[in-house]
Amino acid sequence: MAVVVPFESQPTPSIDRLVGLCRADMERVNAMILSRTGSEVTMIPEVANHLISSGGKRLRPMLTLAMAQLAGYAGDGHIKLAAAVEFMHTATLLHDDVVDESEMRRGRKAARMLWGNEASVLVGDFLLGQAFRMMVEVGSLRSLEILSSAAAVIAEGEVMQLAAAKNTATTEDEYVAVIRAKTAELFAAACEVGPVIASLSKAEQTACRSFGMNLGITFQLIDDALDYGGKAAKLGKNVGDDFREGKVTLPVVLAFRRGSEEERKFWRGAIENSEIRDGDIEHALALMTKHRALDDTIARARHYGAIAKDALALFPDSAVKEALVETVDFCIARSH
Amino acid sequence: MAVVVPFESQPTPSIDRLVGLCRADMERVNAMILSRTGSEVTMIPEVANHLISSGGKRLRPMLTLAMAQLAGYAGDGHIKLAAAVEFMHTATLLHDDVVDESEMRRGRKAARMLWGNEASVLVGDFLLGQAFRMMVEVGSLRSLEILSSAAAVIAEGEVMQLAAAKNTATTEDEYVAVIRAKTAELFAAACEVGPVIASLSKAEQTACRSFGMNLGITFQLIDDALDYGGKAAKLGKNVGDDFREGKVTLPVVLAFRRGSEEERKFWRGAIENSEIRDGDIEHALALMTKHRALDDTIARARHYGAIAKDALALFPDSAVKEALVETVDFCIARSH
């Protein structure tokens, strides 16, 4: 089942322009990533590279590079900061797979299925340590502050999610608070460190942070919608994975609240007691369609996307600014 | 079965003098720890404080405080660095329990038995993030470098141990390399940051680091011996826990190498294939006694302890220096 979104602009928004503008820097980031996963303990590069080389878009480090460009930064620090951001993200994925007991990640077997939970936890810790080493090498205390705070906030968001797990009574506010912490905070930090090392004004730093934060929320909401349709298969996930795992994402929050008492009973049974039977996913999708839960999740995503775009308005027009704005549209366009 | 070690000096070495000298600072560290485990996500302080308040000796942060005192440091930075060191240690314990599937920790149920593996992984990540935040607040880039490197090295050591698990052919050198990384590195870093923030000379920084590194190795070797006897019960572990978990520690390395082919078959069966039957622990202890494996593990510990003491020789005599030296003897004396 595809989620269909009416679109204003004619050409399909793409991330290609951003990729093109960051290509040279990204090659340096990739080399840095490769060199910093090296260890005499062969299991470390094996586990790390299994995930790192599995074809993620590297959106987060690309944001650091693009923001450094937007800020007119002339130094080298953005390369290590971008690599650190990707390591933090990879560490989170390794730990998430253990926490969620996931079997697949990006269309491949999750690292924990190949090397075990132990290796996933420990290699995640190693990457986090290496991320901090790289940040320290850059020598910007403010960047260190931003990224170390992000590390704590992300973990806090994950625990928040764990504590709220399988709770169908979750409000939209509570849900957005969780994804703000667990997903959007790293987008925000990735975007903020660029203007910080370029010594832009506080207002400009805050603008970039706001862009990242709202793009991150947009990104996660679209991901939540995609889990119930669209091109989910291409992302290496199956339609309804979140449903099967009892995850209360925004589509469920909306369908549950808008549903009849009978329907809420269905959601509680499926989510709270993990009673998934044949036809349940189809029924869940039908209820979401009935209550416009997916369409409205995407509408909410558009709202945060609009805030992200406005956040960059105070910067003069440039190719990289346009590419960043298009990235917001690209994230939303993933849903159809 | 107690491990009996002949002792030269009459009074039993104690850690009390060190505790006394650091008391005022340690109260500030404890207050800092309490305030930095705070979170609106109630599961975080619950999990963190379950472990933090479980009566560990807080040896590692105490070393940071003592070294700052030895260095004549007059500022406040040592408080946050000591708290950061304890958080790093606590994060490691939370993750270790998941990796080792431990049920007990310090005589209490392990956090994972009460809140699950998920919470243990994520609260560990949160504490690591908070540790870095505190370090960043202190603002010493060199301290950040030391502690972030330590974080990566510790994780590397744990993976090394994982990769070498259940390998009875492990050499003593390989084993010491593992404990150097997974245990002693944090002792070394905890000791090094004191003279660093006090701006002592490089030679003095290296001396303090060397003290910590060798004390850490001593500490771990004694711990390994204790697992097969001594006051292990008081530490909240059962005699033979390492054996049951198939851990190849130095007592096993020595007993295996010194044993007959018949005996090696026993070790391989027990360690490599986890075939533990009634009477196996008693048999393992008898073989260790026959080959002096525990006594010699303690002799090795004494060797590293002596290096630790000599490392401090270039500092003028003082109460805190004497207390640090006595701490080495205290660690060794734990074994009887």
TrEMBL record, chains A, B:
Keywords linked to the UniProt accession: Magnesium, Metal-binding, Transferase
Cofactor(s), names only, from the UniProt record: Mg(2+)
PROSITE patterns on file: POLYPRENYL_SYNTHASE_1
Superkingdom of origin organism: Bacteria
Gene3D superfamilies linked to this entry: Farnesyl Diphosphate Synthase
GO biological process: isoprenoid biosynthetic process
GO MF terms, alphabetically ordered: all-trans-octaprenyl-diphosphate synthase activity; metal ion binding
Known catalytic reactions: 5 isopentenyl diphosphate + (2E,6E)-farnesyl diphosphate = all-trans-octaprenyl diphosphate + 5 diphosphate
The EC number(s) this enzyme carries: 2.5.1.90
Group of enzyme by EC: transferase
Function: Supplies octaprenyl diphosphate, the precursor for the side chain of the isoprenoid quinones ubiquinone and menaquinone.
Family statement drawn from the similarity comment of this UniProt entry: Belongs to the FPP/GGPP synthase family.
Protein name per UniProt: Octaprenyl diphosphate synthase
Native source organism of the sequence: Variibacter gotjawalensis
